[in-house]
Amino acid sequence: MKTAASARMRLIGMIRKESLQILRDPSSIAIAFVMPVVLLLLFGYGVSLDARHIPLAVVVEQPDTNTTSLIGAFQRSEYFKTQSFNSIQAARRSFDLREVFGIVWLRNDFSERLLSHGNAPIGVIVNGVDANQARITEGYIQGVWQVWLGSYAHSQGVELSLPVALEPRIWFNAAVRSRNFLVPGLIAVIMTLIGAMLTSMVVAREWERGTMEALMVTPIRIGELVIGKLVPYFVLGMGGMLLSVAMALWLFDVPLRGSFWVLTAASALFMLVALGMGLLISVVAKNQFVAGQISIIITFLPAFILSGFIFQISSMPEAIQAITYIIPARYYVAILQTLFMAGDIWPIVLSNSAALAVMMIIFLGLARRKMHKRLDA
Amino acid sequence: MNTLRRIVALAVKELLAILKDKKSRVVLIGPPIAQLLVFGYAATFDLDNIPVAVYNEDRSAPSRELVARLTGSVHFDIVGHLDHDAQIAPLIDNKGALMVLHLGPQFSEYLKRGKTASVQLIVDGRNSNTALLALGYLRTILTDFNIDWSRQNGLPGPPASLQIRPWYNENLVSRWFIVPGIVGLLSLVITTIVTGLSVAREREAGTFDQLLVTPMRPVEILAGKSIPGILIGLIEGSFILLVVIFWFEVPLRGSLGALYLGLFFFLLSAVGIGLMISSLAVTQQQGILGAFLFLVPAVILSGFATPIANMPEIVQQLTWINPMRYFMVILRGVFLEGDSFGLLYNQYWPMAIIAIVTLSLAGWLFRNRMN
Q1: Would the CB atoms of A165 and B116 count as touching at under 8 Å?
Q2: Which residues neighbour A359 within 8 Å (Cβ) at sequence distance 6 or greater?
Q3: What's the complex ipTM?
Q4: Measured between alpha carbons, how far is A197 from A192 in angstroms, rounded to an integer?
C-alpha cells in the first residue's frame, strides 16, 4: 500500500512540476491556445480551392448577336470576370503578364460556321502552370458552354438533344465547398504541430539545462516520468483541440454530422500519438536545436502533404502510399473528414482509430524505453 | 580590411557551430533530400485510378461501350459492379469507391429513340477538389461518347465546340507546378531554422554578451550571422534544383540567372526574418517556436499549394509581406513560362525591401534587446 501511495505522490509531484513549468513559461500556453486560433484563422481563410471571378480575356473578331449571347453567358457566370480585348495579340500580352488566367477567342467566321455546318470552334487558352486550377477552370468553361448550347438551341426553336446527359450528385458536400474538407484536415495538421511541438522540447531542455541529472537522483521511475510529462500537455492540447472544433463549427460553418463524443475520443487518441511522437523526438535528440528541427521536419510538412488532407493518397505512387501509413495524421484526417461531413461511419472510425492506438503504443513504448536514468546513455 | 576579416571569422565560427555537431549536420542534409523525393511524388492533384463502381441496369451494347471507356481510361479503376440501389450508400460511405455510375434500365432504349438518356453519377464529396476533378474526367469521357454516338448515328453535333489549349503545361501535369515550388519551400525551412536559432543559442549560452563586447560592430555581427544561412540555403537550393531538373524532369525554359537572383533575394529575406526571430527570442525554444510561427503561414499563404487568388481580399493583402509568394512566381515563371529578368522585375524588389527591413530590425535588436 505504501508503495502505491508513494508512487501516486511522485506522479502528482511530477505533474505539478510540469504544470508549473508550463504556467511560468508562456510559450507552452501560446503553443496550445494562440497557435490553433491563429493558424485556423489563417488557413481557414487562406487555403481555398474554390475559384471565383477568374480573370478571363475575351476576343471577339466580329461581334454579332451570337457572339454577344455566348460572351454574355461568361459574363453572367460567377466564376469569371471578363475583360474585352480588340485583338488576340493584346489579349496575349495581358496573358503573359499574368493579368488574365485564360483567353476566349471567337474568330471572325464564328457566326458563319455556327449557322452553316455547325461545330464552330470556340478557341480557349488557359494558363496551365497551376494544372489543378487550369482543370477546374476548364470544367467551369465547359459548364458555361453547355448552358449556352441549351439557350442557343432554345432560341432557334429546337430542343438541344444530347445523346447522354450526366446527372451528378455530390454527396456530403452538395455545394462543393472546399472549406468543408480543408478545415477538418487543418485541425489534424494543427494538432500534429501542437502535440509534437509541446513535448518535443521538454526532455531535450532538461538534458540541456542539466536538470535531468537532478531528476535522476530522485526516486521517480521512468514510467512515472513519462506520464508526469504527458498529463499536463495532454490537458493543454485537448483545450486547443476543442477551441479548433468550436471555430470550425461556428466560424467556418463546417457541419458536424457525426457525434461530438466520437470526435473527442478520436482526438484524445490522436493527441496521445502526437505527444508520444514529440516525447520520443526529445528523448532521442537531447538537444533543443535538433529536437526542434526534427519536429518541424517530421510533423508539419508530412502532415500537410502526406496525410490526404489536400493531396489524394490513392493517386500517389505505391511506394509513397506505403510511407503514408506511418504518418499518424493520415488516420486522423480520415476520421475527421468523415465525422464532420458524413457522420459516424463506424468501419472508417474504428479502423483508423485502431491504427492510431497501435501508433500510440509504439511511440510511448519507445519513448519509455529510450529514456534511461543513466548519464552515459 | 579588418571588417572583412572579422566578418569572415564570425561566419566561419557560425558554420562550424552548425556543422560540428553530427546530429545538426544530419538534420540539415538528410531530411531535405528525403522530403524532396517524397513530396515530389506525393504532392500532386492529378488523379489516377479513381475507384469507380458501376451499377448498370441496362446491360445492352451501348451501355457496355460507355463502361468500357471508363475501363480504358488511366484515370479510372472499376472496383465493382453493383446490382441494387442499397449497395450504393455503404460503398460510398466506407470509401470503397469514390463514385458510382448508375445507368438506368432504359438507357439504351432512350438512346436509340433519340431521347436524352440520363446517367446518374454519385460522387463522394468529402474531398471537394477530388470530386470536381473526377467529375471533370468523367464529363470528358461522356462528351467524347456523345460525339462518337452522334457521328455513328448520323445525328447533328453541337453547333459550336470548345477547343481548349492549356499553355506552358500542355498536359496539365500538376507535378510541374508543385515540384519547382518545393525548391522555395525547403530552402526557406532550412535557412529560417539555421538562422532562427543562431542568436538564441548564444544568448542561452551567454556568449552573445561576449560577442557584443568584442570590437565587432552590429553590422559586422549581422553580416557574419547572415552569411552561413545564405551559403547553406544556396547550396541546398542548388542541389534541389538539380534534382528538380534531372530527376523530376521539369522543363527549365527560362533564364537560370533570373532564378538565382530570385533565390538570392529570397534567402536574404529569409535570413533577415530568421535573425529577427532569433534576436527576439530569449531561449532556443522560443526561437524554434518563432521560426515555426513564421514558416507555417509563409508556406500556406505563398500560393505553393492553393492559389492566392482564391483567398479573401484581406488575406491576399497579407501575402504581400510574404517573401515566398514572390519566389513562387519566379520559380514557376522561369521553369514553365520561360521568363527572364524583364517579366520578373516586380517580384525582385519586394523581396529586397523585406530583406532590408528585417535585417535592419535584426541589427537593431542585437543591441537593444539585452536581458
Answers
A1: yes
A2: A273, A276, A328, A331
A3: 0.82
A4: 8
Task: Give the pLDDT of residue A377.
Answer: 46
Block mean pLDDT (10 aa), chain A, length 377: 76 84 76 82 82 91 91 92 92 89 91 82 91 88 88 80 82 85 88 80 74 78 82 88 92 92 95 90 77 75 85 85 91 93 91 95 88 62
C-alpha cell at A340: 464532420
Residues 192-251 of A with CB under 8 A from B: 193, 197, 201, 205
Q: Where in chain B is the domain with CATH 3.40.1710.10?
A: 50-152
- Taking the CA of residue B2 and the nearest CA in chain A, the distance in Å comes to 32
What is the spatial distance between Cα A368 and Cα A222, in angstroms, rounded to a whole number?
7
Burial of B284 (0-12, 13-18, 19+ CB in 10 A): buried
Specify the 3-state DSSP secondary structure of A83. Answer: strand
Interface residue A45 vs chain B (CB under 8 A): yes
Query: What's the pTM?
Result: 0.83
Q: Using CA atoms in the order A241, A242, A244, A248, what is the torsion angle rounded to 10 degrees?
A: 140
Neighbours of B87 (CB within 10 A): 16
Residues of B in contact with A341 (CB under 8 A): 125-126
Q: Which of A132, A169, A312 sits opposite B123 (nearest CB)?
A: A169
- Are A187 and A312 contained in the same domain? yes
Nearest to B279 by CA among B223, B217, B336, B362: B362
CATH of domain B50-152: 3.40.1710.10
The angle subtended at Cα B358 by Cα B244 and Cα B195, nearest 5°, is 55
Q: What is the pLDDT of residues A50-80, one digit of tens each?
A: 888 899 999 999 998 889 999 999 999 989 9
CB contact under 8 A, A135 and B133: yes
In a 3-state reduction of DSSP, which class is residue B95?
A: coil
| Cβ–Cβ < 8 Å for A58, A82 | yes
- What's the domain range around A250? 11-47+177-370
Could you give the number of structural domains in chain A? 2
